[in-house]
Every structure is written in structure tokens, then in C-alpha cells.
Design goal:
The protein is an all-alpha fold and 271 residues long. It is built from eleven helices and no strands. It has one domain. Helix 2 runs parallel beside helix 6, helix 3 packs antiparallel against helix 6 and helix 3 packs parallel to helix 7.
Length: 271
């Protein structure tokens, strides 16, 4: 465990040294998120409280609903992209084969290569929520912290699994990631990041139940905006837990198989 910790710290230090020269990217991403909040704030101003029955489940106000959706949807989207982007960067710079042929396991490498993004993404998530509180007066005082952290932990595990699958697609396809394209492009819409699932056509509502972010955002809004307990959101938590238990080992096995195949065919250096 001590050796694993030192390896993780080394990856974080490496990525910090690289990213410290690109502070503008972090700031621009944060500003982009705040601008989204401004848009949703004024949209919320157009909607009278309780004008939509679909919002009554979350406190009847649109902007707090959108704030939680935007903040966590962007964080989960980062989970999807950071693994494949890390692998793609290693491919282009010519160091992927050297990394994956080291004594450290390939799954461990892909996970540790994304630790820095995981941390900076969490910082951006907190800043977005604080922006909603400070700039727009959103009341998050009812948040059930323990329930929120549990839902977030399980949700992150699921999106980490999908992220590893997307990294497997990069190792195999070299360019083009269908997993991120589907879950990142359509997941936020179908999952109700910007509007309640109830307002969508029936066929879209049925599709939304196949998207993990639907259960994550629903549970997070209930625990953050209403202060619901773990017992109150037990159903989405159980659904997410089952998905995490299945997807985490499956994604690790698929990534390891993709690397073995790349070594066998000598394609790890290709991009």
C-alpha cells in the first residue's frame, strides 16, 4: 500500500507540473460553468415557483435544480473523458508503450494517470456550487452531507468504470471514442441534467432509465436540495451500487485485454 501511495503521489506531481503551465484552461472551464449558471438563473426567473409540477419533487424552483444538474453532470463528464484523454496523450507523445510495459499494472497506470484530473474536477465542482450560493443565493443548508457523499462516491465509481472502458476504446480504435460520445453527448440530456425527466416524451423517459446519471442526479438533488436521508434514496443507491459492482471489474478486465492485444499485435505505438 505504501508503494502504491508513492506511485499515486508521483503521478499527481507529474500532472501538476504539466498542468501548472496551463492555468488558463482551468479558469476558462470554471468561467464557462459560471456562464451556464447565469443562463439558467435567468431562465429560472421566467418560471414562477410551483409553475412546473415536475420540479415539486426537488423544491419547486428551477435554478437550484439546474445548479446541481450542471455541476455534477460536468464532473461526471470529466470522469468519462479523463481516462481516454490520458491514454490518447500518451499515444501521441510516444510514451504509452513504455508506460504500459512497466512493472506497474496497466489498469493501475490508467487509474493513476487520471488522479490529478479527478482532484481538480472536484475543486471545480465545489466552486460551481459555491458560485450558485454566493452569486445567486441558492440555499443548500438542507444538504444531507453523508447521503450526498455516499451517492457521489458510488456515482464516481460507475463513471470511472465507463472512463476505463473509453480508454480501452482508445487503445483499440486509436482515435474516436464511442462510449464518451454516447454517454457524454446524450447522457446529460437523457439523465435530466438541465430539465426534469418527466417533461420528456415517453420514449425518451424509457431511455433515460438506461443511463446511470439519471439515478445519480435524482438522488443528489434529493439529498442536497431536500436533505433526504440514505434510506429515502435507497432505490437509486441500490441501482447504482449494482452497476458499480458489475462495471468496475468488467472495465478493468476489458482494458487489460485491450492492452494485451495491442502488445501482441504491436499496435500500442500507433495513433
Amino acid at each position: 500500500m505504501k508503494r502504491l501511495f508513492h506511485k499515486a503521489l508521483a503521478f499527481i506531481k507529474r500532472d501538476f507540473a504539466i498542468e501548472s503551465g496551463y492555468q488558463a484552461a482551468f479558469i476558462m472551464g470554471l468561467v464557462e460553468s459560471i456562464m451556464l449558471l447565469v443562463i439558467f438563473h435567468f431562465i429560472g426567473q421566467l418560471l414562477a415557483p410551483k409553475s412546473s409540477g415536475s420540479l415539486s419533487r426537488y423544491g419547486s424552483r428551477y435554478f437550484p435544480f439546474a445548479l446541481v444538474g450542471v455541476a455534477f453532470a460536468r464532473y461526471f463528464d470529466l470522469m468519462l473523458r479523463m481516462f481516454s484523454e490520458s491514454i490518447r496523450q500518451a499515444q501521441v507523445t510516444g510514451c504509452l508503450e513504455a508506460m504500459l510495459c512497466s512493472q506497474t499494472g496497466c489498469v493501475t497506470i490508467v487509474l493513476m494517470s487520471s488522479l490529478y484530473s479527478l482532484i481538480t474536477g472536484a475543486v471545480q465542482l465545489i466552486l460551481i456550487l459555491l458560485g450558485g450560493v454566493v452569486l445567486f443565493g441558492v440555499d443548500l443548508s438542507h444538504m444531507n452531507i453523508s447521503a450526498t457523499l455516499l451517492v457521489l462516491f458510488i456515482s464516481v465509481a460507475i463513471f470511472v468504470a465507463f472512463g476505463v472502458l473509453s480508454a480501452s476504446a482508445i487503445v483499440w480504435l486509436k482515435k474516436g471514442d464511442p462510449i464518451t460520445w454516447v454517454l457524454g453527448g446524450f447522457g446529460s440530456i437523457l439523465g435530466g441534467a438541465y430539465f426534469p425527466v418527466d417533461v420528456m416524451p415517453v420514449w425518451m423517459q424509457k431511455l433515460s432509465f438506461l443511463v446511470p446519471i439519471t439515478y445519480s442526479l435524482d438522488a443528489l438533488r434529493l439529498t442536497i436540495l431536500r436533505g433526504d436521508s440514505i434510506a429515502s434514496v435507497a432505490r437509486p443507491i441500490m441501482t447504482l451500487t449494482v452497476l458499480a459492482v458489475i462495471l468496475l471489474p468488467a472495465s478493468a478486465a476489458i482494458f487489460a485485454a485491450a492492452v494485451r492485444n495491442g502488445r501482441k499485435e504491436g499496435t500500442l505505438m500507433q495513433y
